[in-house]
Amino acid sequence: MLTKAFLFDLDGVIVDTAIYHYQAWKRLANELGFDISEEFNERLKGVSRTESLDLILEHGGLSLPDEKKTELATQKNEWYLELVSRMTSDDILPGVATFFAQVRKAGLRTALGSVSKNAPLILERVGMTDAFDAIIDGTKISKGKPDPEVFTKGAAELGVSPSECVVFEDAVAGVEAGKRGGMFVVGIGSPDVLTQADLVAPSLEALTVEEVLAKSNA
Questions:
Q1: Is 44 annotated in some ligand binding site?
Q2: Which of 8, 120, 177, 180 is 20 to 30 Å from 146 by CA-CA measure?
Q3: Which superkingdom (predicted)?
Q4: Is 9 annotated in some ligand binding site?
Q5: Helix (H), strand (E), coil (C) string for the chain
Q6: Across the chain, which distance is largest between two alpha carbons, in Å?
């Protein structure tokens, strides 16, 4: 089938909010009396807020009741949102604007497929809300990646079949989600890490829409 739609993950593909997550988690750890390194933070990428908190508490040797953990997760999110609310179009990753101009010219449909509940806020801050025909975020799904729900819902909202979609993902779990959904997957990052992807590039800047279509329609 010919490709009709491109589905994009947000973080690591369109923008990079990893630094803000790290700053908020680091602040939380510091308030609890220990620290987390950038190296440790790599383990939290693509992991839910609850699981991230569990990993951090384990790292600090702390065991807390669920009520307290809920409170801490909420606090971290508030700090993160403070940082994210200062984002501007300058935070869009290199090559994204050019790539999206090519996408529109090619007449392709677009959807965002992000497990983040903060995705609409981030898109608004960087001025990219109108770049998407459909936005699937954490409020619209019940299962996180590697479950394909976020992408299959995106395809459904666009009125296309999964086999007519190309997914752009920077995380292993996201690549797996796209593949499980029956889609062609472009990995953004390292080919050594994103081994399941059909095509891998370091960024959207390194790709053209023509190149992606040539591979996905082959």
A1: yes
A2: 120
A3: Bacteria
A4: yes
A5: CCCCEEEECCECCCECCHHHHHHHHHHHHHHCCCCCCHHHHHHHCCCCHHHHHHHHHHHCCCCCCHHHHHHHHHHHHHHHHHHHCCCCHHHECCCHHHHHHHHHHCCCEEEEECCCCCHHHHHHHHCCHHHCCEEECCCCCCCCCCCCHHHHHHHHHHCCCHHHEEEEECCHHHHHHHHHCCCEEEEECCCCCCCCCCEEECCHHHCCHHHHHHHHCC
A6: 55
Q: Is 133 a catalytic residue?
A: no
* Whether 54 is catalytic: no
Give the chain's domains with CATH numbers. Answer: 5-15+89-216 (3.40.50.1000), 18-84 (1.10.150.240)
Active-site hit among 9, 35, 91, 133: 9
Taking only the tens place, the pLDDT of each residue in 165-185 is 999 999 999 999 999 999 999
Residue 106 tokens, joined: 């090619």
Smallest Cα–Cα separation from 204: which of 119, 130, 103? 103
Q: What is the pLDDT of residues 2-57, one digit of tens each?
A: 999 999 999 999 999 888 999 999 999 999 999 999 989 888 876 778 889 999 99
- Residue 166 counted as an annotated binding residue: no
